[in-house]
Design brief:
Helix 1 packs across helix 3, helix 3 runs parallel beside helix 5 and helix 9 crosses helix 10. This protein has 3 domains: 78 residues, Multidrug-efflux Transporter Regulator, Chain: A, Domain 2, CATH 1.10.1660.10; 124 residues, Response regulator (Rossmann fold), CATH 3.40.50; 84 residues, no CATH class. It is elongated. The chain has 309 residues and is an alpha/beta fold. The chain has 11 helices and 9 strands. It has a 6-stranded mixed sheet, sandwiched between helices. It has a 3-stranded antiparallel sheet with strand order 1-3-2. The longest helix has 29 residues.
């Protein structure tokens, strides 16, 4: 990777902008839209402000404009065109976005204004250790540095989202294996390269909130439903060997684990495919309701059998 901390690979650029990597390459080839550099291994790397540029162009293309007419325009000109197309007015934006942060730099300056939107991010809770993060105020967004989450980040994120119930959760990462990234994305988390400048992170916070607000209303999502049992507890119960009258705790724990996995899978489909988003959202919400019922039954069985859970 390039030594410049603000350069990001095409995969990260695609994920943050919502524009497929192949489309980015095509627009570069045909319209000279971006000017990527190359890292020592020859891969394309992009400036962090290319994220907003691609987002603006994608929205204008959706509104009927041609990429050929947009390629040479500046950021300001693109923003002006978006306003002409009736983009979200400043009155529709929140004045303040309340954020809770886990970051190894105790003074990481996430608080601040977001470009010329009139909106600002305010950190209401901060910690270098996820175990001590608490907030006395409602949290709109949870921002987590992956390196501060320990060896089992997925479980830590699940516990934090259940406890703080943020509207969205963003995870900053320096390096992460593909299986780990997929595991986090299946939990409807937005992954952001940690090398992005903090003003770009604020912009990602706003964009993620606006995207969440644009979705049809639906029953409470898995990320905001307080789970009765941690994954570790469920796995212990599913493998429990004890002198019990029946094996109901084992079977119920396995059912809850399976339901959680299917709920997560369904939500990842809804996030990645627009064509069948409604169907998969319905599947996920129905599975979440079933999971809550099974968790309640498991809790009752544990109480009856005298099992500490």
């Amino acid at each position: 990777m390039s030594s410049n901390p603000e350069l990001i690979p095409i995969g990260a650029l695609s994920g943050l902008s919502g524009v497929p990597a192949e489309t980015i390459r095509t627009w570069e080839r045909r319209y000279d839209l971006l000017s990527p550099q190359r890292d020592p291994s020859g891969r394309r790397v992009y400036r962090s402000d290319d994220v907003e540029r691609l987002q603006l162009i994608a929205k204008l293309v959706d509104a009927g404009e041609r990429v050929a007419d947009l390629a040479a325009l500046s950021h300001d000109a693109l923003r002006q065109r978006q306003r002409l197309h009736g983009g979200a007015s400043e009155q529709t934006l929140p004045d303040v976005i309340r954020a809770a942060v886990v970051h190894p730099a105790a003074a990481w300056p996430l608080s601040g204004g977001i470009d010329d939107t009139g909106c600002r991010v305010e950190v209401v809770a901060r910690s270098v250790d996820p175990r001590t993060l608490e907030s006395t105020e409602p949290v709109d967004v949870l921002v987590l540095d992956l390196g501060a989450l320990g060896p089992d980040p997925a479980d830590v994120v699940s516990e934090l989202t259940a406890r703080l119930t943020p509207k969205i959760t963003l995870v900053l990462y320096h390096y992460a294996s593909r299986p780990l990234r997929r595991s986090l994305q299946r939990r409807s988390l937005r992954l952001i390269p940690a090398q992005l400048p903090v003003d770009q992170v604020r912009r990602q916070v706003l964009d993620a909130l606006l995207a969440e607000g644009s979705r049809p209303s639906a029953p409470q999502a898995a990320g905001t439903r307080a789970a009765r049992f941690t994954r570790a507890t469920l796995e212990q119960l599913s493998n429990r060997r004890a002198d019990l009258q029946c094996e109901c705790p084992n079977h119920l724990a396995r059912l809850v684990l399976a339901l959680r996995e299917f709920e997560t899978y369904s939500r990842s489909c809804a996030a990645q495919s627009r064509a069948d988003a409604d169907l998969h959202r319905e599947l996920a919400n129905g599975t979440a309701a079933a999971c809550a019922e099974m968790e309640a039954l498991l809790a009752r069985v544990c109480t009856y059998e005298g099992i500490e859970s």
